[in-house]
TrEMBL record:
Coiled-coil intervals, chain numbering: none
Similarity comment text for this entry: Belongs to the PTPS family. QueD subfamily.
Cofactor(s) the protein requires to work: Zn(2+)
Pathway: Purine metabolism; 7-cyano-7-deazaguanine biosynthesis
Organism: Aporhodopirellula rubra
Keywords per UniProt: Lyase, Metal-binding, Zinc
UniProt catalytic activity: 7,8-dihydroneopterin 3'-triphosphate + H2O = 6-carboxy-5,6,7,8-tetrahydropterin + triphosphate + acetaldehyde + 2 H(+)
Official protein name in the record: 6-carboxy-5,6,7,8-tetrahydropterin synthase
EC number: 4.1.2.50
Domain of life: Bacteria
Length: 167
């Protein structure tokens, strides 16, 4: 007989973060900098605990909020892009793509460990960070964490990670 599976989803109005970014696509087309009011949904799957919870909604909600608030009102830049080159001195973050150049105060910039700041990649980073942040609290019995990032009212990039870190 197939066993039931359980999941908790949190998708709150407070999870919206407003951030600027630009990506490259189709090889070498580099977007102009623009912003989105990103939305986030997070799901975790696993067995029920003694409360008959997968995890406490409130604990998961609060962990996601830490991540979305950290991104709010920043420009998100890729650390690992081959041609979008990001450098920092003690005051400013400078970004170059071929002949184009952008300069931001350091406190406005977030350099994310991604190749391109797509919704999928941002979802992966949030998933890794929420997993790391809650691992001790939620324990090791969960199976998956999934994070979905909405760039524009229904355009979602989704990343699903195993709960357990690979050996
Ligand atoms: N799978 C993905 N596709 C696209 C992504 C992405 O992250 N994952 N990102 C983009 C661009 O960032 C693009 O800027 C998306 O923004 P959007 O505002 O939706 O683009 P539009 O110009 O069509 O929006 P308007 O509503 O006209 O402002 C593209 N694809």
């Amino acid at each position: 007989m197939t066993q039931p599976t359980f999941r908790v989803d949190v998708c709150k109005e407070q999870f919206v973060f407003s951030a600027a970014h630009f990506i490259t696509f189709a090889g070498d087309i580099c977007e102009r900098i623009h912003g989105h009011n990103y939305g986030v949904r997070v799901s975790v799957e696993g067995p029920l605990d003694e409360n008959r919870y997968v995890v406490d909604f409130i604990a998961l909600r609060d962990a996601v909020l830490v991540q979305t608030q950290a991104l709010d009102h920043h420009v998100i830049l890729p650390r690992d892009h081959r041609e979008i080159l990001v450098s920092q001195d003690d005051k400013e973050t400078t970004v170059r793509f071929r002949e184009r150049r952008w300069v931001f105060p350091n406190e406005d910039a977030i350099i994310m460990p991604v190749v391109n700041t797509t919704a999928e990649e941002i979802a992966r980073v949030i998933a890794e960070r929420v997993r790391e942040q809650t691992m001790e609290q939620f324990g090791h019995a969960l199976s998956f964490i999934e994070v979905a990032v909405d760039e524009n009212c229904g355009q979602w990039g989704v990343c699903r990670l195993p709960w357990k870190l690979s050996e």
